[in-house]
Amino acid sequence: MTRWYSDYPGLAGRVDQIRGLLEELDKESQSRYGRSVDVALFTEYALTAGKQGPAKEIAVSIDATILEPLGELARRFGCNLVIGGVFRRQPTKSDCINGAVVIDRQGQLVGQYAKVHPVLDRPGPSGEVVFEGGLSPGSEYNAIDLDFGRIGVQICYDIKFPEGWRRLKENGAELVLFPTQSPQLTRPAMYAATQKYWVVSSTF
After folding, report:
1. What is d(CA 3, CA 12) in angstroms, rounded to the nearest whole number?
2. Within 13 Å, how many C-alpha atoms sit on residue 30's CB side?
3. What pLDDT shows up at residue 130?
4. Contact indicator for 135, 164 with CB cutoff of 8 Å
5. pTM to 2 decimal places
6. 193, 165 in Cβ contact below 8 A?
7. Is the pLDDT of residue 66 over 90?
8. pLDDT tens digits, 120-131
9. SS (H, E, C) the chain
10. How far apart are CA 136 and CA 122, in angstroms?
11. 31-53: per-residue pLDDT in tens?
12. Where do the domains of the chain lie, and which CATH numbers do they carry?
């Protein structure tokens, strides 16, 4: 759990906060199990939480600016990282998503997920639908292979819609990671039981 919904310390400052939590996780894992963490899951919006403004001003590109420091952390701690944030789909476009990046132990980007069901903010000035400050919904429920198994990702309001959870099972997911702002347990437990996979959540 983290409470990164106040002043934004800048990208370098946020990476330092992530590093501090990874140090705690690694210490705990080494103490209990004698090895590094398999996967560290951070909350919805973790990389950008606390930044103010519409999505297009908050968003960061999925490029070397974030992938290099996060990849270095994955290599340093020998773990897979799953970190949420507001991202630009491509550096040259303004199309933004509420998403998560998946980085393996070698520091390589091996997958990403765009929240399929962002929350409705309001009708825009011309009557258009506006989601989460101007985000675009995703459209894929992709399973991602890591060195310990196949995972899927769902984000926050996706919990209300069974289709994604079912599709991830059909795509071979053994573990679904759930970065969210909601601390609820009943629905994740229901999906875990009905789909026969593990669900791990990370919340603010």
Report:
1. 17
2. 9
3. 80
4. no
5. 0.93
6. no
7. yes
8. 877 667 777 788
9. CCCCCCCCCHHHHHHHHHHHHHHHHHHHHHHHHCCCCCEEECCCCCCCCCCCCCHHHHCEECCHHHHHHHHHHHHHHCCEEEEEEEEECCCCCCCEEEEEEEECCCCCEEEEEECCCCCEEEECCCCCEEECCCECCCCCCCCEEECCEEEEECCHHHHHCHHHHHHHHHCCCCEEEEEECCCCCHHHHHHHHHHCCEEEEEEC
10. 14
11. 999 999 999 999 999 999 999 88
12. 10-203 (3.60.110.10)
Q: What angle do CA 193, 41, 148 make, to 5 degrees?
A: 70
Whether pLDDT at 150 is above 70: yes
pLDDT exceeds cutoff 70 at 192: yes
Length of the chain counted residue by residue: 204
- Position 93 scores a pLDDT of 61
Determine the distance from the C-alpha atom of residue 56 to the mean position of all C-alpha atoms in its chain, rounded to a whole number. Answer: 18
